[in-house]
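Appendix C: a fully annotated inverse folding record. The material below is reproduced so that readers can follow the format used throughout the book. The structure is listed first as tokens, followed by the designed sequence.
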């Protein structure tokens, strides 16, 4: 079994955003999230808490335009820092899934840390925003994460309340990730020998 520290840090600065993320896959779910978008902070905090990953996100961006660039770029940086923390992915379970309810909503997430970024996303939102967070950005965040991390994500949610649906998705994502990164052996789970 591997005992290598599974931590990574990454900063990315563009003309639109300035983002730094620190991630520890073997943490206890401690988070410090600052994005300037309250509901997005809440979702990233929930992801950290339920995955058990320690997560620090300091993100600033052109919120006077809207939250699009900041949410998208946070997904990109989180995906890259996740890939770095997983290194060669030796020993991980690789696959993870979860079904999480939140009141009337039910979210299902299945994922494969297989080196190929792809998102399948089935969700309909009724409101344009939850607080100052655009509901459209939920799909875009997970797509940005999937592509930059090299991960397959299959996600769906049903329900009536957009807050509940999005939160259930983030929590299901957290539990699926928690299961997928568990160290099960000292081998790479691929017939190719690499991921």
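Designed amino acids, in order:
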């Amino acid at each position: 079994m591997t005992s290598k520290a599974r931590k990574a840090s990454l900063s990315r600065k563009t003309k639109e955003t300035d983002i730094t993320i620190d991630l520890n896959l073997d943490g206890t779910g401690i988070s410090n999230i600052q994005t300037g978008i309250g509901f997005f902070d809440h979702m990233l905090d929930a992801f950290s808490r339920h995955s058990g990953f320690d997560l620090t996100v300091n993100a600033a961006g052109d919120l006077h335009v809207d939250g699009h660039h900041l949410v998208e770029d946070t997904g990109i940086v989180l995906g890259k820092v996740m890939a770095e923390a997983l290194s060669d992915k030796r020993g991980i379970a690789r696959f993870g899934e979860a079904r999480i309810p939140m009141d009337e909503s039910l979210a299902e997430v299945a994922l494969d840390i297989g080196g190929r970024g792809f998102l399948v996303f089935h969700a309909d939102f009724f409101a344009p925003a939850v607080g100052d967070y655009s509901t459209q950005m939920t799909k875009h965040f997970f797509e940005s994460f999937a592509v930059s991390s090299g991960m397959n994500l299959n996600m769906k949610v049903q329900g009536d309340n957009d807050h509940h649906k999005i939160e259930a998705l983030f929590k299901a994502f957290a539990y699926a990730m928690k299961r997928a990164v568990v160290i099960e052996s000292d081998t790479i789970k691929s017939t190719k020998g690499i991921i």
